[in-house]
Amino acid sequence: MKRFLHLPRTIRSKDFVAWRAGSSVPCEGKGDVVVGHVHQVFEEAKMLVVEEWNQINSFYNEFPLYSRTLDRQNLTMPFTQVFGPLVSQHEPKEPGSSGGDIVRIELEFTNEHQPEKRSFMGDLKLEGAGLGSSMSDFLKEHHS
């Protein structure tokens, strides 16, 4: 569950949370990761009523998007079974679309393990004819 960015506060109604389908502990690696929208919080009983949402793009996408399920099933679960509240952002609907709500869930390590971004030709070296400068230096000199 550490891939999800979460807020440093207690879970409230209208927050998003995540849990593992095959485990009663959210950080145990058993079962699929499920994301849901909190409808009710029972502080005294340490219980939540959560509606499960479906991911509508690839699991490995940098910005996972979720939407409501067709059956809109609510689940009651203890606080100890969920991870959250997750950092989320409602995505704007496209003009003329009749689709439901779409939410983007923020991930913690989105760019940490990505290769460094480089300019298109920044690392190419010109070889031969005694040229030792990089391609970007060569282009700057000849296209200015």
Structure overview:
By secondary structure, the protein is mainly β. It folds into 2 domains: 16-105, no CATH class; 119-144, no CATH class. Helices cover 6% and strands 31% of the residues. The chain has 1 helix and 8 strands, in the order E-E-E-E-E-E-E-E-H. It has one helix spanning 135-142, and strands at 16-20, 33-42, 47-55, 65-68, 74-78, 83-86, 88-90, 102-105. Strands 1, 2, 3, 4, 5, 6, 7 and 8 form an 8-stranded antiparallel sheet that branches. The longest helix has 8 residues, at 135-142. The termini are far apart.
The total count of strands amounts to: 8
* Count of discrete alpha- or pi-helical segments spanning 4 or more residues: 1
Roughly what fraction of the amino acids lie in strands? 25-35%
Report on the biggest sheet. 8 strands, antiparallel
Summed up, the domain count is 2
Averaged pLDDT: 75
Low-confidence stretches: 110-115, 117-131
H/E element order: EEEEEEEEH
Q: What shape does the CA trace take?
A: globular
Q: In terms of structural class, how would the helical and strand content be classed?
A: mainly beta
Helix content: under 10%
Distance between the termini: 50 Å
* CA-atom Rg in angstroms: 23 Å
Key structural traits:
2 domains, mainly beta, 8 strands, 8-stranded antiparallel beta sheet, globular, 6% helix, single chain
